[in-house]
Amino acid sequence: MNFIENFKGDPDRFRGCIIAGAAGDALGYAVEFDRLNTILKRYGSDGITEFELTDGKALISDDTQMTLYTLDGLFHGRASGDYIDSIDRNYRDWLITQDGRGAPSKGKQSILNEIPEMNHPRAPGNTCLSALYKAVHGSTKMPINQSRGCGGVMRVAPCGLYFKDIEKAAKTAAEAAALTHGHELGWLSAAAMAAMVNLAVWTDLPFYDLVDQAMAAVSRLWPDSAFLPVLNGLIEKAVDLSLSCETDRDAIKQLGEGWTGDEALAIALFCVLRHPDDLESCLIAAVNHDGDSDSTGSIAGNILGARLGLSALPEKFRENLELYDILYGLSGKLCRYAEV
Questions:
Q1: 32: number of CA atoms within 13 Å, CB side?
Q2: Alpha-carbon distance values, 175 to 39, 66, 156 (Å)
Q3: Do residues 136 and 152 make contact, with C-beta atoms less than 8 angstroms apart?
Q4: Quick one: DSSP state of residue 152?
Q5: Are 308 and 317 contacting, i.e. CB atoms less than 8 angstroms apart?
Q6: Do residues 322 and 57 make contact, with C-beta atoms less than 8 angstroms apart?
Q7: How far, CA to CA in Å, does 91 sit from each of 19, 53, 74, 126, 276?
Q8: How far apart are CA 181 and CA 92, in angstroms?
Q9: Which backbone phi and psi does 102 adopt, to 5 degrees?
Q10: pLDDT tens-digit readout, 251-273
């Protein structure tokens, strides 16, 4: 294991992953619980294409909050030697920011709790809340519940960035997701997402090859998973639809609404494959549908941002983004301390 402080890779990609993910989250958060017809009535035929501001800021949701707690948990795990324990402790710190009732498992750890903007509930998932209230945490081998919700996959992009080894990135993401989401599709989707981010940031593979290699890594790690064929099938469907003549909206309808981990990943991946060189079009496609708009926008931004970098994100999706300076600084720090 070699930790380096003078990272030789591309910090623009690390920042692109985290900040484009936050931008997709903020864009979608304004319409998270709206059906597409409601979105179109409110914003016009193109749907929502600009940030909706609250007190001058485009607010992030629990997706980006928990992504930051995952990122910070990796820093603490680097020092302690136990990444999953550190991420779990950080998630319990996040729980305090949501309603004040949670208690950290081994004492408060994360400095993120000291940031005023983080101490606001942003539609936190009930599964995350209920799981973190428990004294024990879940794992892939000892699930805490049978939730396949997208609350596990939407927060694990930092695992794909931090570990250059794709299998370590996928395994860490799976265990981080399984802390709260016990169904195989809840954490297998997180593993696949981290593997895609890993290949997007650490390689220049074409996206269709990237998807094949990411899913191959997941299959190597969990060859006997009962639900791996389900995830593989939905990913293959997303790939096929990206090559079809279907409109973005019609294709997304065929993939689901994104409330589950596998559907959220498939919708986000479709948008990445359909718009591989255009972060703006990708994010707009990823949030304008009937389902979990902030999570699909966040995941799509994470994956494509990891490849195109922050420099490819339009200024309108940086200006007024809540916690932009924090996102910029922590993603740069993650780049400097990545495990290679």
A1: 18
A2: 35, 15, 10
A3: no
A4: T
A5: no
A6: yes
A7: 20, 27, 12, 14, 32
A8: 15
A9: -70, 155
A10: 999 999 999 999 999 999 999 99
Contact 273, 281 (CB under 8 A): no
Coil vs helix vs strand at 163: strand
Q: Which two tokens stand for residue 247?
A: 């409109």
Question: pLDDT digit string (tens) for 159-173?
Answer: 999 999 999 999 999
Contacts 24+ apart (CB under 8 A), 80-83: 83/172
The count of residues in the chain is 340
> Rounded to whole angstroms, how far apart are CA atoms 214 and 272?
15
- CB contact at 8 A, 304 and 20: yes
Asked if residues 102 and 96 have their Cβ atoms less than 8 Å apart, the reply is: yes
Alpha-carbon gap, residue 310 to 20, rounded angstroms = 7
53 pLDDT above the threshold of 50: yes
- Top-tier CATH class for 11-336: mainly alpha
Tell me the whole-structure pTM to 2 decimals.
0.96
* Cα 185 from chain centroid (whole Å): 15
> Who's near 101: CB < 8 A, 6+ residues apart?
95, 133
Task: Give me the percent of the chain exceeding a pLDDT of 90.
Answer: 91
Task: For 108, list phi and psi in degrees, rounded to 5.
Answer: -60, 135
Q: In whole angstroms, what is the distance from residue 287 CA to residue 267 CA?
A: 10
Report d(CA 70, CA 17) in Å as an integer: 14
pLDDT in tens, 68-97: 999 999 999 998 899 999 999 999 999 999
As a whole number of angstroms, the distance between CA 139 and CA 187 comes to 9
pLDDT in tens, 274-308: 999 999 999 999 999 999 999 999 999 999 999 99
User: Domain ranges in the chain?
Assistant: 11-336
* 226 token code pair: 């009962």
